[in-house]
Input
Amino acid sequence: MDIVKTDKLVFEYIRRDEEGNPVDITTALDHVNIDVKQGEFVGILGHNGSGKSTFAKHLNAILYPTEGKVYVDDMDTMDDSKLWDVRKSAGMVFQNPDNQIIGQVVEEDVGFGPENLGVPTKEIWERVEESLRAVDMIDFRKKSPNKLSGGQKQRVSIAGVLAMHPKCIILDEPTAMLDPSGRKEVVRAIRGLNDVEKMTVILITHYMDEVVHADRIFVMDKGKVVMQGTPKEIFSDVPTLTKLRLDVPGPTRIAWELKKKGLPLPDGILTCDELIREIQKCR
Amino acid sequence: MIRDITIGQYYQTESVIHRLDPRVKLLGTLLFIIALFNYKNPVGYALGIIFLFAVIKLSHVPVKFITKGLKGIFIIMLMTVLINLFLTPGNTAITLGKLTITYEGIATAFSMMLRLMLLIMGSSIVTLTTTPNNLTDGLEKGLGFLKIFKVPVGDVAMMMSIALRFIPILLEETDRIMKAQLARGADFESGNLIKKAKSLVPVLVPLFVSAFRRAGDLAMAMEARCYRGGDGRTKMKPLIYKKRDAFGYLVLFSFAGISIFLGRWHIITEFFNSLYVNYILK
Amino acid sequence: MPLILDHVCQIYNADTEHPVKALDDVSLVIPEGQFIGVIGHTGSGKSTLMQHLNGLMKPTSGTILYNGRDISDKDFDKKELRRHVGLVFQYPEHQLFETDVFADVCFGPRNMGMSKKETELTAFDALRKVAFPEDLYYASVFELSGGQKRRAAIAGVLAMKPDFLILDEPTAGLDPVGRYEILDMVAKLHKEAGITIILVSHSMEDVAMYVERVLVMDHGRVAFDDTPREVFSHSAELEEMGLAIPEPSKITRKLIELGIDADPGVLTATEAADSIYEALMRAK
Output
């Protein structure tokens, strides 16, 4: 079943002058068709300004389509009566770790979502506990968020969304402001959610190495989906990715350069181990 | 200097004061302040100080942490002391050129300073031992009766709690922007008041821009987590009075009653007045 | 004139139960003309170090010398130091405050007491050096993209004509192409304008490709101070510090362990591919 489905989604930013007359129209999303199945890990790639964050905001009914439709768990996001159900089904984690934590204590922040949903007190505590365990932050439950590292803050944010028991979780560049070790721990947490908890994950990022384990990848540019497929298919096409201002993972680039020199390597090598194994075969 | 203000900062530890219901603590602060402004003799102040330090001791918050809050109001304290010292009429104690200091002035200045210090320290304890969420819960419930007058108590409480959470973040940001502008040769220290005020523009503008950006982000994050005002929300930590809270109220009211009574009791006041007349004036 | 740090220590919260040694006995010489990378994970002391070089903090002990003089001296002119040592903070676009880009770039030189004409000339020069698009010189800051804002902010520091330029994570939050554009621009400043560059980063990949000297900070100490090749050969120690070495280096090293005679000092993907290919061909 499709958890998320967009049908020819178009979104236009309209800039108006002081009298309210439109002066400029930017098409941020241009007939985007993306569908995500239950339990999938989907990566959405694109450089800054490619429209990927605008897309994310549609899934949570923060923005509404100018044209086309967005369905979350079979609910039309334009349907006002379903607004809170949509937001409950599609949990969202944002980029800036400081600007999305509401509570002054970790566990209180995680409890914020369930409180808003009217969950009974006893169940809130159970949800907080299980969510903090899922992101391995249970030891920090009494800490102040201000004392945490960026990676830890983002894991708290993920727990805060999990506690709402969403059908899928959308992460909008959750690692863009983190250092390498913070990135690693957040990506590990996200993969854990998908592998262990079978949570549907939509990860929006510009770091290629974060989506090498995804089930499917969509690449966006200028508001359009320009590539889609498995990581292997996507990363085989190094020239196109480079043209789209995107990097490829280190091992993939080395493999591609070696192949250009004539080494018989297969397409779409993604990890270090894979590359080493394949090079060994060429000796 | 702004970093020294301890109001609005939570000090994490375990103590009986931390566990107390926020409504007890809020009412306690109110009673403490009322008591402070009713004392007329040193016994009242002595009781106030003893009570305050007993609470601090119980709260497990280092005294240094609480007194740090006083640095922030140093200027206000100094002004209060100076004004009272020089402008209170009465029996001259010291003459400095045209200025005279009276015994009454010394007494008022001293008691004003004491009041201010106790007031700041007393209110710091509440914020240091209560998480902002808990504090706003307390306010929300304690002021719940205002709902009859159509005051959106829940929303206001949420706003306060968020404001409190962002204080340390914005202080850090201020520090960073100031340093960044210093690195570009900005000068916040020299010049007269107008020049100094002007030199703050390069700090305030980015600070406001960032505060608005954060507010926008936060509003979005809250909506995404289904926040839609106070109605229909449940509480993770609902406020329920426990035995210790009843005991807390008992201690508070007895303290306020006894200290105000003794602090205003005319026999004690007259005793100190006679000490003053007999030993100092002679 | 070189910048010299002589046994500099910086301790935060010294009077509490948990003092933090942000800098622990750091001694360094930073001569003019170098392109230096400073790496370390968050909290390793690298940001503190940068602020010291700009006189924004006073060391708990030790001295920082510029022009042979202690910069913490009371009669030392800090403004003069800041004119020669430019510091670009992380996310520098957050400090823009003027109504348009050009006015903001003028802020630094004006503070340095340059005349109006001189200020404007250096501002133009700085904007040109960071390759800021000319049609946006008088645009409002709010109309710019992330990368453009960052350039404008860097120009604001560059306009003071510093001899040293310190950049704290200049590529944070940018996409890959934005990153390389900024780094290429910085490399150009070093090569063409002869500015000494100190590039603070937690990305090994960024640093490896550009710099001639790498300082690795760990727990407030300088753990390594050498050429990138040398430093990255200590992969085990670096990983223990929570720093990942560049992937091409890592892969090549693993292949060497497996008996492929490649160059252990490669830093970039292209270098790695070349070296691995040659080694394979030699073996055949």
Observations:
- Residues 180-195 of chain A form the longest helix (16 residues).
- Chain A touches chain C through 31 residues (CB under 8 Å).
- The longest strand of chain A covers residues 2-16.
